[in-house]
Amino acid sequence: MDWTPEKPPTAKEIAAKFRSDIADGLYPPGRQLPGAKGLARKLGVALMTVQNAYKQLAEDGLVAGRQGSGTYVLDPEKGHDTAQEVALGLRELQRHLGQVTAQLGELTERVAQLEAESSTESVKGE
């Protein structure tokens, strides 16, 4: 993880990093994620920040916490996607969302430009 002490990561950024690592196969099913306390200390963030990141991963269906033991990448039930497959799907979804967001931004600019041209033409026509 490449965060600087000047700008410690948010829970969203921590979750994104682990999501990416799971998608890349760095955390296979059954592998334990780093302990929340140690990771929080290493990253210079509050324990709650790491816990929230792990909670996001659990909500995505990628990990599960075991009381007193830690947080582990889920080993899928027969017929279900692995955590890596789910993480890859989420990565692809984020990529598509970025493309749609960019296209929406372009359309917004074009509409604003057309409205500006239309109001200029109506002023000339008066």
UniProtKB/TrEMBL annotation:
Coiled-coil features, chain-numbered ranges: 90-117
Species per Swiss-Prot/TrEMBL record: Streptomyces atriruber
Alphabetic keyword roster: Coiled coil, DNA-binding, Transcription, Transcription regulation
Pfam families linked to this entry: GntR (PF00392)
Name of the protein this chain belongs to: Winged helix-turn-helix domain-containing protein
Family matches, as SUPFAM superfamilies: Winged helix' DNA-binding domain
PANTHER family: MANNOSYL-D-GLYCERATE TRANSPORT/METABOLISM SYSTEM REPRESSOR MNGR-RELATED (PTHR44846), MANNOSYL-D-GLYCERATE TRANSPORT_METABOLISM SYSTEM REPRESSOR MNGR-RELATED (PTHR44846:SF1)
UniProt keyword Coiled coil, yes or no: yes
PROSITE patterns from the UniProt entry: HTH_GNTR
Keyword Transcription assigned: yes
Residue ranges constituting the HTH gntR-type domain according to the UniProt record: 8-76
